[in-house]
Amino acid sequence: MGHEARTMAGLAVLYAVVISAWLTRPYRDLGLDLFFFIVLVLSVIALPLAFRGVRGFRIACLTVATFLLPFGLVLAIGGMFAYWPAAVPLALAATSVPGRHFLPSLMVAGSLLVAAPWAYSTWVI
To answer: Transmembrane ranges (predicted)?
Structure first.
């Protein structure tokens, strides 16, 4: 496993940070309660980056990507469905094969390009 997989996991964290900043903007009055919840979500999404070994990294990526989907569904009323696109780079990072660089990178870039307008349009409606 090369640096491409860790880069994809880092993109998931970057996406989650941007979405967290965007989601907390209308709820600034909630204060520390929302802050601690967002820090918890970000730390769970960043968890795979803490593993050095290939096996632990892949298991953590698949576990976090799998739990992001029901988490977003259960808490969709609060806008947590916006974290769903972060599962795509994590799943791709877990299944990446060294030597094949083009397709996973293209898929991650495409998912992030689609995710931002989709999240914005669902929030506005």
So the answer is: 7-24, 30-50, 57-82, 102-120
